Amino acid sequence: MDYKETLEATVGVPFSQGNAVKVLKNGDEIFPAMLKAIKAAEHQVDFLTFVYWEGNIADRFARILAKKAEEGLEVRVILDSFGAAFMPEELVALMETSGVEVEWFRPFKQWKVWKSDNRTHRKVLICDGCVAFTGGVGIAEEWEGDARNPSEWRETHFRIEGPAVKGLQSAFLENWIEAGRNLKIGLPWHENNGKTPLPDDHSIQDIPLQVVRTSASVRWSDIVILYKTLIQMAQESIFITTAYFNPNKPMVQRLCDAAKRGVNVQIMMPGKHMDKRVANIAGGDHFNDLLDAGVTLWQYQKTMLHSKIIVIDDFVSCIGSANFNHRSMLKDDEVNLVALSEELAETLVTHFNEDLEHCEEVKGETWKRRNVFRRALEGLSRPFKQQI
């Protein structure tokens, strides 16, 4: 199968060539790489995040962004009004007084009724237009460390170089413009935008990347099209890692169909350490169908699992901000990248297998014997599944 041709035809976004991707596992790798890129920036820093809470890392990000603005760089920050609602006010004040342009995405007082349930869930950092970061990480103490205990979340983030950086830049600009800011035509501060990567010997080179940017929709989005295409074109294997597993019935059916045609379908999600227990309950409503079809379900037990990764046939990798749930597919602004690389897929599958050491498998017979209270909670969650 020609994966590239299929994905371009269905999603409608061409792949760019000559990109480099570095996999960053957990806060101990993610945050130093992001802070290093900000420190090295000479012209502009754009930063968009859903979660910005408290902790040492929150302070460090605010201070380095403020410092770069004081040095004369153009520093633009977008914070989601819901996800960053508990950010310390003094950190916002520090950035703003230093010259950082801070915008809040859909402030509560300005929300219109039809927008009140839609947020930006994107996580994007772009430095000088030539290096970018995306994935699942939020700026809060929960993401620090190396997933050694329940206070340190398990996360995967990515450092991107090459033409695909422009796609991530467009995801930032879309939210920046909606926040009321003007669009600057061109990027005169860096004439080689997206073409001159910062050297990193540990990146995987020459990867074709497709940037899939999706905005909140009533019934459909490019993320839905992307996920359906990935599942339907899988011939050998599907490995899904997601922080919140709550797909709709048609998506569940596609996973079941894949397993029934002989595809090895494995899904990993959080277990006992879960920041939103209702998501775990809502997703469990479909476990019987998945297990009966031959899908293998894993629950990560060491800490909160927050990674968002899909690997198809040990070659196609889908990475970014979107979870495998209703909200990411239909309600929030997201950005994902699709990579065609055996080396990247191998790295991500290796991480999947390493994480299996800290997982418990959901067994069909055991699940069918779950208690009445759990079944009742699943039933109660059904009317609210589209909010989860």
Automatic annotation (TrEMBL):
Organism listed in the record: Fodinibius salicampi
Residue span(s) of domain PLD phosphodiesterase: 301-328
Domain of life of the source: Bacteria
InterPro entries: PLD-like_dom, PLipase_D/transphosphatidylase
Taxonomy of the source species: Bacteria, Pseudomonadati, Balneolota, Balneolia, Balneolales
Gene3D superfamilies according to UniProt: Endonuclease Chain A
UniProt feature coiled coil, ranges: none
Pfam family, one: PLDc_2
PANTHER family in UniProt: CARDIOLIPIN SYNTHASE, PHOSPHOLIPASE D
CDD domains (UniProt xref): PLDc_CLS_1, PLDc_ybhO_like_2
Protein name per Swiss-Prot or TrEMBL: Phospholipase D-like domain-containing protein
